[in-house]
Design goal:
Elements (H helix, E strand, L loop, with lengths): L4 E3 L5 H21 L9 H5 L14 E2 L12 E2 L10 H6 L1 H12 L7 H10 L3 E2 L2 E2 L4 H17 L10 H4 L12 H12 L9 E3 L5 H14 L4 E8 L5 E7 L12 E6 L7 H19 L2 H9 L1 E5 L4 H15 L33 H8 L14 H6 L4 H12 L2 E8 L2 E6 L19 H14 L21 E3 H4 L6 H8 L3 E8 L9 H17 L4 E8 L9 E4 L2 E6 L5 E4 L4 E8 L6 E7 L5 E3 L2 E3 L14 H5 L8 H4 L4 E2 L5 E2 L6 H5 L14
Helix pairs in contact: 1-4, 4-5, 6-9, 9-10, 10-19, 16-19
Bound molecules: zinc ion (ZN).
């Protein structure tokens, strides 16, 4: 049995989308110059037969001569059509037909030719025995279900003339299926591939931002029982930072179910991780549907959040530079040295996002000698908000980290082949390469090894290391020992939340050629899956009060490890631990502490350890939770600088509306009947 069809595409498909787009634009501007329309009758008038002059009282079937509707499964149409165009000329001048002629380019070929054929069935409906036939509502609903995400991805409304209830009819009214021929052809093609209804074609090519949004939304709608997309915020240029989530209960946290995140493309020019995460999302969805037990177990026991691009603005700059490099006209020009370019690394404000997080590591180093020092949930210092330009991408990720009980995370980069783990910032300010372990050194090493060992080549000592020396290290390194930097995302995760994040350097080439994408997926697939499974290690449980209510924010400490983790909203927690004997203590403000001695055998993946804490009268002098700083943890963004600064314009009805989408300019040139129905929220 063939499971999933994966297509390794050729390099030519990268540029073909751009070429089509040019065609689209040329066509639009030539049509715009001859714009003049006679009064159309309304769809309602058309439906009641009021559009015809007495001479044309009965519909007359005429040959189908519309250029963009030549492949419909019938040969005759009639006017007025279902939406009220009186003649072929009237139709060809309308924005509806124009949309059909360009939709392939606008949606990057997605849902093509389905949308066009559906549109033709309304604009040039079938005519038989001098009678206008209407297309089937069921065909419309099927296309809408599988294609609406593609419109959402470019912020376009579902076209009014494809309203399934308004212009389509049921079987009992004698409808016809405008996609019948297309479907027959597809069935013949698919019968050769698989007898199963579920399969995904993963295209191992690069994806533009709108293609990425579209694929993620399409994947979530295909797997709507286990997946959904959501935006964690916007980039400087207003692009969504779109995440896709997989879980047996998408949209909610399940008690005791650990959550993990995977982030790609933080540096806009490091693009392999972005593509791998897009493929991973498609793979998880299709393998789950196909009944792959391993994938089903992962998704049923873990909530997985994937953000393929943290820096979509930077990606655009990097991708355009690569396109220039590949353009034959530029071949002999200077300035496109293969490994020498860094355009697109930073965000649109020229900020390196991996230097833009609060530097909590310095705070940790300054305090670690104090007796009651805390190395967990360190608040963001006020100076960060006052002195630093905080990128909206950084801000969105910080809020994200604070909003979900993430246990582990991987940030995918490029330029080296190694896993690096915290701390990234050196414990000695003058030492730029100094081994700087966290209190969780052993856990981090295991987490890093899990990825490196499952990767096809990362842990091999003879593997090309792109310049740096990681020989005899098995493909993993402490971050600061490699090179030190402050304000990184991984250190922030560890010191501000319960999340343990590693940095995955996927290879020497930051922007590999398209032919490399499929082999790279094969090299990393097992590593990504093993990494996700790693979260089911150590202990987990619930901290409750005497009445059985979960206690939020209780600390879980392990003797000998100077880093606590805290419970989530319902009192559940996850503590990564190596096998062995441990003393574990649960504590919460206003409750007595409880300690347990536990033995975690090698054979057990994850142990369950619950705690019940008794309420005690507060003794303020002894209550070390009463450090004023703890309250500051909740004071995030005290100056509210971000909520105010997002660019919005006011809609006509006073509602908030974002700027018009990029494709609007081409339609709006048309003047009199600019298709405002294509704008969402209008
Ligand atoms: Zn990077």
């Amino acid at each position: 049995m063939i499971t999933t069809l994966y297509v390794a595409a050729t390099a030519t498909s990268f540029s073909s989308g751009t070429a089509k787009m040019h065609t689209v634009l040329i066509l639009l501007s030539s049509l715009a110059t001859c714009w003049s329309v006679p009064r159309r009758c309304s769809p309602e008038e058309a439906a009641m037969g009021r559009c015809r002059t007495p001479a044309e009282n009965r519909p007359q079937c005429m040959e189908m001569v519309l250029g963009y509707c030549q492949d419909v499964p019938y040969s005759h149409t009639t006017f007025p059509n279902i939406v009220g165009h009186r003649s072929r000329q009237d139709l060809e001048m309308g924005a509806e037909y124009l949309l059909l002629s360009v939709i392939h380019g606008l949606l990057n070929g997605e849902c093509s030719p389905d949308i066009r054929l559906l549109g033709c069935s309304v604009l040039a409906p079938r005519c038989q025995d001098n009678k206008l036939m209407k297309p089937c509502r069921s065909s419309c609903e099927m296309v809408k279900k599988s294609c609406i995400h593609a419109f959402e991805a470019i912020q376009m409304a579902w076209p009014y003339f494809l309203d399934c209830d308004r212009f389509f009819v049921g079987e009992e009214e004698g409808c016809y299926d405008p996609l019948s021929e297309l479907r027959e052809k597809q069935e013949v093609a698919f019968a050769n591939i698989s007898d199963s209804g579920f399969f995904t074609i993963i295209q191992f090519t690069y994806h533009t931002n709108s293609q990425m949004f579209s694929i993620l939304k399409k994947t979530a709608s295909k797997c709507s029982d286990i997946s959904q997309t959501y935006s964690i915020g916007r980039s400087v240029e207003g692009k969504d930072l779109l995440a896709i989530e997989f879980s047996n209960n998408p949209g909610q946290h399940d008690l005791l179910e650990p959550e993990i995140k995977l982030i790609g493309n933080m540096h806009g020019n490091e693009v392999l991780g972005r593509q791998l995460l897009i493929y991973l999302a498609q793979y998880l969805c299709s393998e789950y549907l196909l009944g792959n037990e391993r994938i089903q177990t992962i998704i049923n026991t873990t909530r997985i959040h994937i953000l393929p691009s943290m820096n979509p603005d930077g990606y655009e700059i990097a991708a355009s530079e690569v396109a220039d490099r590949n353009d034959p006209e530029n071949i002999n020009q200077e300035g496109h040295e293969y490994n020498g370019w860094t355009s697109g690394r930073a965000n649109a404000q020229n900020l390196d996002l991996n230097r833009n997080f609060p530097d909590l590591t310095s705070i940790f180093y300054n305090r670690r000698r104090f007796r009651h020092f805390r190395s967990h949930h360190i608040p963001v210092p006020e100076s960060y908000w006052l002195n630093k330009v905080v990128a909206p991408e950084t801000y969105a990720v910080m809020k994200w980290i604070r909003s979900y009980p993430f246990v582990i995370s991987a940030s995918l980069h490029g330029g080296e082949l190694v896993i690096s783990y915290p701390f990234d910032f050196s414990r000695h300010p003058q030492e730029e390469r100094m081994y700087s372990p966290t209190p969780d050194e052993q856990i981090f090493r295991q987490l890093a090894r899990t990825y490196a060992d499952a990767h096809a080549t990362m842990s091999n000592n003879d593997t090309d290391r792109c310049g740096a020396s990681f020989a005899n290290k098995g493909g993993i390194t402490n971050g600061a020992q490699w090179y030190s930097f402050a304000g990184g995302m991984s250190d922030f995760n560890y010191l501000h939340s319960n999340c343990y994040e590693i940095t995955v350097e996927l290879g020497c080439d930051k922007f590999p050629s398209e032919e490399e994408l499929y082999p790279e997926w094969l090299r990393n697939k097992e590593a990504l899956l093993s990494f996700m499974e790693f979260v089911h290690r150590g202990i987990k449980g619930i901290v409750k009060d005497e009445h059985g209510n979960g206690i939020k924010g209780a600390t879980i400490s392990v003797r000998g490890m100077r880093h606590d983790i805290t419970t989530a909203v319902d009192g559940d927690y996850w503590r990564l631990l190596n096998p062995g004997v441990h003393i574990v203590t649960a504590a919460a403000s206003g409750y007595s502490k409880v300690s347990k001695r536990i033995h975690l055998p090698r054979t057990v993946q994850v142990g369950r350890v619950d705690f019940v804490l008794k309420k005690v009268p507060r003794e303020p002098s002894l209550d070390y939770f009463n450090i004023p700083e703890l309250d500051n943890y909740d004071r995030f963004d005290p100056f509210n600088q971000f909520e105010q600064s997002s660019p919005r314009v006011q809609g006509e009805n006073g509602e908030e509306r974002t700027e018009k989408p990029w494709w609007w300019a081409y339609f709006s040139q048309l003047g009199v009947s600019a298709p405002t129905w294509l704008l969402r929220n209008y």
